[in-house]
Automatic annotation (TrEMBL):
Pathway: Energy metabolism; oxidative phosphorylation. PROSITE patterns: COX1, COX1_CUB. Pfam families: COX1. This is Quinol oxidase subunit 1.
Length: 647
């Protein structure tokens, strides 16, 4: 029994038991459904072994949506706990676990895969490519992310969730104060997912620089492709820092090293510095592609080209550079000294300038535009004032002297949600709605979509504006309860109501998908929005090879100019197309990584050794494998094109 006791939940409760049962029933239901409908072969051939960037993008999307609801439930539970004084809905330990997992799930396992969905599905189409540069590496990137996410999410039913906060500061995250395996899950699951993300960054830098259509110079690339290139560059520079930090933290916990301990030469502030050297650029890994999505949507529905193209590109480059020299504003109150605080205060304020440039670019794009406001545009228009409010409060926090008042209060919580939700979540939902017809061949319902956007915005304002007030009044973040005498109760109840309204809006998204799947017309064109970029120049559904003939680009908005100015995009005859073969090796390797990570969490050294050998065996097999892909014949292309034109 001693062996099995290590897998027990150290702080069980009714919600955790319910989660255990629901996970078990869900797994049984999926396995039974696949068996009953005889879909195991289809699942293996079409999804588990695919290297098609479009299908990999869809898998990122599905993962992100599941994690959105997982993190959303955590958020509702936290707001419910704080809705009234002296609440006993959650005990302190369960609140700490939910608080920790909410942050990680939303940032790394929801927002990141949502961005990766757009990059995977859209970028190759926007640059006129047939796939990414390294298709198998792309598949491995997804499956490592997915297995890292699954490893992290089983923690709360096997062994216990991490509970040291989403930043996992030492010494709280050390063995002395975090005795369960929860923080082991944190270190190892994020490590596995992070390796996959780093591979994605390398892949997309190569894809964008080397696989653009003829005539598409860097300064003719669509803005989303530019934002993806810059975000990928940040990934390549920032994620190795996280890899090193997690490796050091893992060694402290499992092998007794002293990188971040309070004795034997350790430095707890070393973790804080390394974490935020990665953590602040991570914000811009999310926000820059979101800016790219807004740029595409605003330009499309203003019916004019993006104002200040070069300044938009320049501002993103400047933001990416400044993102690496602002990390110390996270510890203005930790005794760095006036000079250091002043330097990082100035760099933090400076990042508001190129961000402000982009706001003016979008506003001036709208000026004199023939504006229509379908659901994607509604999200984009709501984003501008809400995000600007978050940016202004960021400048307030950048003042190091004033930060002594704001730091570690709900004011800070309100600020970063005020940036991330309008800046990233709205972009995701706008882009999700915008690209849905290209993904699935029918439109989402406009009326339900607009109800969702307005409800979300009302809920957002009610949920987070009160936090600015309670934060200024002294409500500290991370507190799981408070007394009635503090006076925080009424505003926290308003916040809970806002969170509940936001929850309803997310339920409406699910209902919209269901309703549109049943009732939406399938008789739509390949370009239902009258868009401007190349992803809309191909068929819906997009064929495996994307373009039968590679387009030739003559302007910044190649597809728009082909429609309005008569530019010829597709010249020449059909030729056979080289495509990569599917491979099960990325999925198998990621499964081995999952077992390796689980074994490492619980210090099961024999399985760790076996799976480590398995990882190297898979890498060796791939190194000696001779797979030159396959060709799609001209006849097959003609048949596919004829069928799609007929559809």
């Amino acid at each position: 029994m001693e062996f099995f006791e290590r897998f027990a939940i150290p702080h069980p409760s009714l919600p955790i038991y319910i989660a255990m049962v629901s996970i078990g029933l869900t797994v049984i239901g999926i396995l039974a459904g696949l068996t009953y409908f005889k879909k195991w072969g289809y699942l293996w051939r079409e999804w588990l072994t695919t290297v098609d960037h479009k299908k990999i993008g869809i898998m990122y999307l599905l993962s992100a949506l599941v994690m959105l609801f997982r993190g959303g439930v955590d958020a509702i539970m936290m707001r419910a706990q704080l809705a009234v004084p002296d609440n006993v809905l959650l005990d302190s330990q369960h609140y700490n676990e939910i608080f920790t997992t909410h942050g990680i799930v939303m940032i790394l396992f929801m927002a990141m895969p949502f961005i990766m969905f757009f990059m995977n599905f859209v970028v190759p189409l926007q640059i006129g490519a047939r796939d990414v540069a390294f298709p198998r590496l792309n598949a491995l990137s997804f499956w490592l992310f997915f297995m890292g996410a699954m490893l992290f999410n089983i923690s709360f039913v096997i062994g216990g969730s991490p509970d040291a906060g989403w930043t996992s500061y030492f010494p709280l995250a050390g063995n002395e104060f975090s005795k369960s395996v929860g923080t082991n899950y944190y270190m190892i699951a994020i490590q596995i997912a992070g390796i996959g993300t780093l591979m994605t960054g390398i892949n997309f830098i190569t894809t964008i620089l080397k696989m653009r259509a003829p005539g598409m110079t860097l300064m003719k690339m669509p803005m989303f492709t530019w934002s993806s290139l810059i975000a990928s560059a940040i990934i390549v520079f920032a994620f190795p820092v996280l890899t090193v930090a997690l490796a050091m933290g893992t060694m402290d916990r499992l092998f007794g090293t002293n990188f971040f301990t309070l004795d034997n030469g350790g430095m707890d502030m070393l973790w804080a510095n390394i974490f935020w050297v990665w953590g602040h650029p991570e914000v811009y890994i999310l926000i820059l592609p979101a800016f790219g999505i807004f740029s595409e949507i605003i330009s499309t529905f203003a019916r004019r080209n993006l104002y200040g193209y070069k300044s938009m590109v320049g501002s993103m480059v400047i933001i990416s550079l400044l993102s690496f020299i602002v990390w110390a504003h996270h510890f203005f109150t930790m005794g760095q000294g006036a000079l250091t605080n002043s330097i990082f205060s100035v760099t933090t304020m400076a990042i508001a300038v190129p961000t402000g440039v982009k706001i003016f670019n979008w506003i001036l794009t709208l000026r004199k535009g023939k504006i229509t406001v379908p659901t994607p545009m509604l999200y984009s228009l709501l984003f501008i004032p809400l995000f600007t409010l978050g940016g202004v409060t960021g400048v307030m926090l950048a003042m190091s002297a004033a930060d002594y008042q704001y730091h570690n209060t709900m004011f800070l919580v309100a600020h970063f949600h005020n940036v991330i939700i309008p800046g990233v979540v709205y972009a995701m939902l706008a882009g999700f709605t915008y690209y849905w017809p290209k993904l699935f061949g029918f439109m989402l319902n406009e009326r339900i979509g607009k109800w969702t956007a307005w409800l979300m915005s009302i809920g957002f304002i009610l949920a987070f504006i009160p936090m600015y007030i309670t934060g200024l009044d002294g409500q500290a973040r991370r507190m799981y309860t408070y007394s009635e005498s503090t006076g925080f109760g009424p505003l926290n109840m308003v916040s809970f109501g806002g969170a509940a309204i936001m929850g309803i809006s997310f339920v409406l998204i699910v209902y919209n998908i269901y309703y549109s799947f049943r009732y939406a017309s399938r008789d739509i064109s390949s370009d239902p929005w009258n868009a401007r970029t190349l992803e809309w120049a191909t068929h819906t559904p997009v064929p495996e090879y994307n373009f039968a003939i590679i387009p030739e680009v003559k302007s910044e908005e190649a597809f728009w100019d082909a429609k309005k100015k008569g530019h010829v995009l597709f010249k020449g005859e059909y030729e056979k197309i080289h495509m990569p073969n599917n491979s099960g090796l990325p999925f198998i390797l990621s499964c081995i990584f999952f077992v390796w990570g689980f074994s490492l969490v619980f210090s099961l050294w024999i399985p760790v050794i076996i799976t480590t050998i398995g990882i190297f065996v898979c890498m060796t097999v791939r190194s000696f494998e001779k797979d030159h892909g396959r060709y799609i014949s001209v006849k097959e292309i003609e048949e596919t094109e004829s069928e799609l034109r007929g559809a």
